[in-house]
From TrEMBL:
Active site, per annotation: H80, C96
Name of the protein described by the UniProt record: LysM domain-containing protein
Source organism of this protein record: Desulfotruncus arcticus DSM 17038
Lineage of origin: Bacteria, Bacillati, Bacillota, Clostridia, Eubacteriales
Keyword terms, alphabetized: Cell shape, Cell wall biogenesis/degradation, Glycosyltransferase, Hydrolase, Peptidoglycan synthesis, Transferase
Domain L,D-TPase catalytic positions: 11-120
GO cellular component annotations of the record: extracellular region
Gene3D superfamilies for the chain: L,D-transpeptidase catalytic domain-like, LysM domain
A GO molecular function held by the record: peptidoglycan L,D-transpeptidase activity
Residue ranges constituting the LysM domain according to the UniProt record: 138-182
Entry superkingdom: Bacteria
Family annotation (InterPro entries): LD-transpeptidase (IPR050979), LD_TPept_cat_dom (IPR005490), LysM (IPR018392), LysM_dom_sf (IPR036779), Transpep_catalytic_dom (IPR038063)
Pfam assignment, any one: YkuD
Pathway(s) this gene product operates in, as recorded in its UniProt entry: Cell wall biogenesis; peptidoglycan biosynthesis
Gene Ontology process terms (BP): cell wall organization; peptidoglycan-protein cross-linking; regulation of cell shape
Amino acid sequence: MSSDKASSASKRLAINTVTKRLSHFDGDRLIKEYPVAVGKQTTPTPNGFYKIKSKIVNPGGVLGTRWMGMDIPGGNYGIHGTNNPASIGTAASLGCVRMFNHHVEELFPNVFIGTPVHINSTMAVDWSKTNKPAQGKKTYTIKSGDTLWKIARDFNVSINELIAVNNISNPDQIQPGQVIIIP
């Protein structure tokens, strides 16, 4: 393993859509935190655990100076710069995470393909859930039109169990493509 790969193994990003902050971690150590713009109410940034799948320098236009694509199912979501810096700190995007261009340029060389990204709308980040659930645990990928109540009914589990196991702060804000654990 190259030293770059070895040093990147413990790096991860956490994006909080409530506080509109992106946190860059190395292990348990916070390296830096950045203000961001997230998806607006009609096109929210999907909560869940993802990975960086692509990186582009100077994608241009609304994407600003850098693009880091995430493996979020059902869409083309990324962390990127912006040509609208006034939007940072707001819910303004179509689901992507916008950063000031100078911030995304600072972060970009420290993020690698495969870097974990946790997007959440709670204050706490539970990194123990970043890996696939333990064998024997059933998961379900949320589809368009699903509600937590429908999923609970379909799998014959209590809504409270579903919320607790998945650390869901707002049961009305589940997203298509989000993977949840069925207790």
